[in-house]
Amino acid sequence: MQTSTRLTMVSLLLPLVLAACGPSRYVQEDEYNDSRYARGGNLFGDTGLVFGVGGKDGTGGTGGTNDGGALGVNAYLWRGALDTLSFMPLASADPFGGVIITDWYEPPTAAGERFKATAYILGRQLRADGVRVTIFRQILQGGRWIDAPISQATIGEIENKVLSRARELRVQTERS
Amino acid sequence: MRKILLASIAVLGATSIAQAQTAKSTFDQGDATKRAGVTASPSLDTMPTLAPGQMAVRINGKVAAYFAYTNQGQISNSTGKISNANTYSYIRLYPSMDAVAANGLRYGIAAEMREDGNTPSQTSPGDQGNISSTGVVARNNTYWRRAYGYVAGDAWGTVRVGAGDSPYSLMATGGMYELGDANFCGDTSTSVSHANGAPYPFRSCAGNMYTTNKIVYLSPQFSGFDMGVAYEANTSTGGMTSGCTTAGSVAGCDALETSSAASTRRKNTADIAVRYRGVMNGASVAVAGGYLGSGKVNLTTGGSAREGLGVWWGGANVGFAGFTFQGAVEGGREDRMAMLLDGAPSQLTWQLGTSYTAGPMQIGVSYFEASRAGSLWNGTTYNVKRADRGIYSAINYGIAPGLGAMAMLAYSDSSSPNGAAAGSTAAAVDINSYKSGNQNNTHQTMASGGLFFRW
Q1: Residue B351's pLDDT band (boundaries 50, 70, 90)?
Q2: If exposure means fewest CB atoms within 10 Å of the residue's CB, which of A71, B115, B276, B300 is most exposed?
Q3: Distance (Å) from the alpha carbon of A139 to chain B's nearest alpha carbon
Q4: Domain boundaries in chain B?
Q5: Residues in chain A closer than 8 A to B49 (CB atoms)
Q6: Would you call B255 exposed, middle or buried from its count of C-beta atoms within 10 A (0-12, 13-18, 19+)?
Q7: Closest CA–CA distance from residue A52 to any residue of chain B (Å)
């Protein structure tokens, strides 16, 4: 019982200690070990068979939250990513795995600098964390391309463009 | 659209004061590290995004079917023999509800329904899933394995009430349960029949803790850290009564009683865990650790005195470029989460493993060792510990969404020194009752292939 009491007291204090570490983020139910969320996907989409919430608002009706048609990932995010990155030459695109890889692109306004992008569509839901973009940057030094850093803000901007485009496409679909 | 593209170019050009972009791991925060110890997969983004006022009712489920080949340490005696080949299948249902109130409060329920396929004695037709001595039996009973509700707020975290996991299992890290049919905690291990087959020492994947009523608090995440704490009054799985109607006179009371069986029951169990998840230099990192302690149900007379639980544990999972490197350790006053007899030696167990994921395929291997009291230590006749160890390898392949295949191969053994009788040098330990004479070791080789269907 003494052990339990000590544990309880420590438990009451720990959230305060953690809270002092900075801003918080809600931990979703599926971020814990849970039999419902095994790897490998579900027959009815990422959320399983869902009842009670209809429409195409990302919560799905019966059959899950696909919005993906025949694609393996969310169609709006997929098309949004393609549109956003289409100014760069496309190296490969896998609509089932949700991966877009561009070739190196040298902006005409920035000679001696080139970029390459990879976009991952992470699921069949249209949600803010459903896309992840990686940008690679190289600069020309002494006739050789050298890797150079790129800011997280830049990556965030590109991801926001993808999400904005996906939202536009979604709105267009709703109106059509 | 052109404006967007031009804007994109402008953004790309403005990178002179950027932070270094290291090679990205295929595991990333919010993905592989979303759940500690679980392999990355887009399918982990499974929670429906609900607006205030919305509710989603879901029915997830799983059907698993295996063919297994199990060599159980030269089992043979004069009365029976066990075949090496076996088949196995089951269904599980996961009904749940998630909702967000108009004021932003999150709430919901989750449950798990299973069928009873592992009860070892098969004597009554219709109530068991295993082979029956009385002939072919019907599909077995179903029961609720978990059932809890939760309320949550973005700022203050989640409170769960009911029969469900505690932080000990919710935040367990490094167990490699995503491998094969869930490492040694998987279904194939149940094909080992005799009681002293090398059992997996880590219990975070088993039902010792999550089938009982408890209250659990899970904090929000701060700078990568989150924590959880749980309290379980007794080992009730649903009822409100304290286990007996007349204190001290009948078995089952939850504080003091006469039955010797009660000496194995815990009470006032408290559990705390802290977890970190983040990305460091392109590698995903998940680390967790915790402590679980309990009291015990006391006895008026008879029975063997036992100690409350005092278990510490930790685990880590590092992922980079498709590889994961995982480890876990657990020990203290326990014997696979059962209470020790007074004075029995503590348990110490560890596990290391690695896996590689490429597209829909994952391959991996893990190894564990355990030193613990086991049933051989009874404080009077035998005073020996037993040692368990095992190596597990498997390959998983995602055929289609909701359809996966698995093949695994594992070896495990247990041993305990002879001459175990207290104060004696006689060979008294028998760890393999299937073989004649006293055996101080046993070993198993398991291989299986199977399909998983999930919805």
Answers
A1: very high
A2: B300
A3: 11
A4: 23-210+306-454
A5: 58-59, 65, 125, 127
A6: middle
A7: 5
Ramachandran class of B360: left when φ > 0, alpha when ψ lies in -120 to 50, beta otherwise? alpha
Cβ–Cβ below 8 Å for A157 and B11:
yes
**B218 close to A27: Cβ distance less than 8 angstroms:** yes
Residue A39 clears pLDDT 50, i.e. is over it: yes
Does A157 have pLDDT greater than 60? yes
A7 touches B at CB < 8 Å:
yes
Residues of chain A contacting B311 with CB distance shorter than 8 Å: none
- For the segment A68-112, what is each residue's pLDDT rounded down to a tens digit? 444 668 888 888 898 899 888 888 888 778 889 999 998 888 888
Q: What is the pLDDT of residue B147?
A: 93
Predicted ipTM of the assembly: 0.78
Residues of A in contact with B148 (CB under 8 A): none
Of A158, A97, A167, nearest to A132 (Cα)? A158
The set of long-range contacts for B232-235, using a CB threshold of 8 Å and a minimum separation of 24, is B232/B166, B232/B266, B232/B268, B232/B269, B232/B270, B232/B271, B232/B294, B233/B267, B233/B268, B234/B265, B234/B266, B234/B267, B234/B268, B234/B297, B235/B265, B235/B266, B235/B267
Please classify residue B403 by burial: count the beta carbons closer than 10 Å to its beta carbon, then call 0-12 exposed, 13-18 middle and 19+ buried: middle
The residue length of chain B stands at: 455
8 Å CB contact of A52 and B55:
yes
The type of residue at B88 is Y
Q: What angle do CA B164, B170, B176 make, to 5 degrees?
A: 125
pLDDT of B243 reads 63
* Residue B152 in this model has a pLDDT that exceeds 80: yes
Break chain A into its structural domains and give their ranges.
2-31, 75-175
Q: What is the CATH number of domain A75-175?
A: 3.30.530
With CB atoms and an 8 Å threshold, state whether B396 touches A42.
no
Judge: B219–A27 Cβ closer than 8 Å, yes or no: yes
Euclidean distance between CA atoms B172 and B289, whole angstroms: 8
Q: Do B219 and A22 touch (CB under 8 A)?
A: no
The yes-or-no verdict on residue B171 having pLDDT over 80 is yes
Across B246-275, average pLDDT: 76
Query: Which string of DSSP letters, residue by residue, matches B11-34?
Result: HHH--TTPPP-PPPPS--TTTGGG
Q: Across the interface, do A149 and B20 touch by the CB < 8 Å criterion? A: yes
Per-chain mean pLDDT for chain B? 77
B292 neighbors B333 (Cβ within 8 angstroms)? no
| C-alpha pair distances (Å), B334 with each of A41, B303, B307, B313, B344 | 36, 18, 9, 12, 9
Structure tokens at B187: 């279904």
Strands B225-232 and B266-280: antiparallel
Rounded to a whole number of angstroms, the distance between the first and last alpha carbons of chain B is: 38
> Token digits for B40?
């990355």
